[in-house]
Amino acid sequence: MKKLVLLVLFLFYSTSVFAKVNVVTSTFILSSIVKSIGGDGVNVSYIIPSASNPHIFSPTPKSLQSLTKADLVVFCGFGFEFWYDNVKDMLKGKEVLILSKFYKHPIDKRTINGTVIANPHIWLDMKFVKNRVTPLIEHKLCGIDSRHCGQFKKNADRFRNRLQHLIDEYKFFFKRHDNACFLDVMPAFEYFLKSSGKSSCYLVVKKGDEKPTIGNISNALKYCTCKKGLILYISNKQLATMLSESLHYMPVELNPLGSPNDSSKDNYIKLMRYNLNQLRRVLQ
Question: Does domain 20-163 have CATH number 3.40.50.1980?
Answer without folding.
Answer: yes
